Amino acid sequence: MQLPTMAEDEPVLNITTEAFSGRSKTKSKLNRSERMRKNRQPTENDTKQQRDIKDDERSDSKQTNKTRKITSQPATTGHLPSFSSLFTNNPDIPSVQNIPVQQVKEAMFSGNRFADLKLHPYMVSNLEGKMELAEMTSVQQKAIPVLLQGCDAMVKSQTGSGKTLSYAVPLVQDLQARTPRVCRDHGPYAIVIVPTRELALQSYETFQKLVGPFSWIVPGCIMGGEKRKSEKARLRKGINILIATPGRLLDHITNTKSLEMSRVGWLVIDEADRLLDLGFEKVVSQIVSVMEETRERQRQTVLLSATLSAGVERLAGMSLHDPVRIDITQPLSHDTGHVTEPEHCSDNGVNKDSVSANFAVPETLQHQFVVVPHKLRLVSLAAFILSKSQEHSENQKMVVFLSTQHSVEFHHTILENVLTDTDSETTPGSGHDIVMFKLHGDMLQKERTKVFQDFCVAKSGVLFCTDVAARGLDLPNVGWIVQYNTPGTATDYIHRVGRTARIGSRGHALLFLNPSEVKYVQVLAEYKIKLTEMAMNDLLKTLMLSEAKRCLANKQKYLRPRTVEEAATSLQRRFELNVHENKDMRSLARKAFQSFVRAYAAYPSHLKSIFHVKHLHLGHVAKSFALQDAPTHIGGIVGKFGKMDSKRGAGQGRKRLSTTPSGGPPKKHKSNVSEFASGLDEVTSKSLTGRRKKQKAGNKKMKAAAQR
């Protein structure tokens, strides 16, 4: 049989006519050959040819067409198994209406000087000379004369208004004027309770400066995380002004015999609302009751807070006696030079109508928010940090608040690896010389102290932290507060942004919101907090310049991005590659993802309509942690909140975690342990039950054998 002739340009195929099981495979082999030809992988010669093309493109900048082909390749040397697009399947960004808000305002400076008060001349010269504090703030001008008269006081003022000196100055003035002179062997004459260790250190440093002219007054500090033995040694030597966190103070009151409380004449409860948030109300009440039992003289008590909640009022009624209320907030439309006069509370120390729903914020603080889908959050944060690091201003430092300790660890590590000169792809001189810090409650106390001190003295840098740094800390030259994870209540928002715009300086605050969370802007507006919107696209545009500089520094000019999408995608690839190639980073990213979802599920009930786990697309959330794993492969999340119902879509419902075969709820098993038992004999009861079962089974076998 003669085969038909073929055209010259037609591929020559090895076609056989041999039959197999009575069927011809000519057509199947033809299709297979075509598929093999189309899907043929590049050979070694092809790879060599591509390398030659790249060398030609670097040497000849006029060959633009070939350069465009190379640009589309990833900017990383590693290989990712898969990469999903950042700019597809994102929720629409809703438009947010501009809500008119009449902000509440405090006059920061009073115009009066410390020299106008009846203070010791050495203290005035110390304030105006070494401490460079000539003019009093409004809260100082109102609080110091009241406390010098010996009255109890409840002080409400915005963060960064100088509340520490408002009680520290009259306290030191009182101790230095006592006769006979205060001696360190007498023990504490004043106790200052603060919520966090960092605030304890900061308050201690303030007192150290203030008692400079009065060397016989000794301040001291005790707090959790330090060795009790060394603290007991300091207490035995003698401390006159004792600054302490509540848990450690109660521990020493109970167990340290050398701590004598009978001479305590001052009790200061600073950041009272934060103390309540951390669950210290019972501890503080125990401390107050011990001081009531042991005091030999009338005690003067001061309670300070940026907000006056019902819990703070309750604490005031428990510890204060006929206090003077000092609250200098007022609407912006009022005369800024006028401040409200102090008014006395009711007989029980609590004025039920005094709980304020409005918060005062500094005039020099500008509030902004940006709506970013979860897939774009990480690159948006990186873009913002890069853009602000290139600005040269007085306040160059930035504080980024996150919801969990694992999230702090992850973002600090990955952004330091990818954005700074420690990245393997970034060479020195690339411009990414950002210094990054981290601070959270799970760090060792020595490390926390060092980070706090290093960040205070640094000229620039980014601090990633939890709410451990949200209250009372005076961090100098902080220009931006970034709330990457949304705070819970408006009170938390106020305290976070209070780390900037302190004592009249200018500051900015940026709040990251998911498209489903934009109603939170209305929540803040109800508390007289006005936010303006920052466009996400404007934020991402800064990546064009940053990525171009990186490519030039690495001699990869041909990889420069042409669009914002390419720049963001290139950066996200580097984030995901950093996680993918490092086992420790993968583990850290998973823990951060898990802790974020759990924290998201713990928002207050009145905010559940805005912040609810069902609104989260867990796959997109995983992308924001540079994870390529599906949420079902990340342990501890889907099992906790239940599987998504694929028919209803992501975030639209959850299946029951466990059900009976009939579809009802799982049965509750009764415990064999008495409610009055110690619980230690539970294992014994279970083991006895198992033993009895074995004995019964053995007896049945013996009876059956006997019957046979």
UniProtKB/TrEMBL annotation:
Its EC number is 3.6.4.13. It comes from the Eukaryota. It catalyses: ATP + H2O = ADP + phosphate + H(+). InterPro entries: DEAD/DEAH_box_helicase_dom, Helicase_ATP-bd, Helicase_C-like, P-loop_NTPase, RNA-helicase_DEAD-box_CS, SPB4-like_CTE. Coiled coil: none annotated. SMART domains: DEXDc, DUF4217, HELICc. Residues 689-708 have a biased composition (Basic residues). Residues 31-63 have a biased composition (Basic and acidic residues). Residues 1-89, 641-708 are annotated as: Disordered. GO terms for molecular function: ATP binding; hydrolase activity; RNA binding; RNA helicase activity. Residues 144-326 form the Helicase ATP-binding domain. Keywords: ATP-binding, Helicase, Hydrolase, Nucleotide-binding, RNA-binding. It holds the Pfam family Helicase_C. GO terms for cellular component: nucleus. The keyword Nucleotide-binding applies. Residues 377-540 form the Helicase C-terminal domain. Belongs to the DEAD box helicase family. DDX31/DBP7 subfamily. The Q motif is unique to and characteristic of the DEAD box family of RNA helicases and controls ATP binding and hydrolysis. RNA helicase. This is ATP-dependent RNA helicase. It comes from Ridgeia piscesae (Tubeworm).
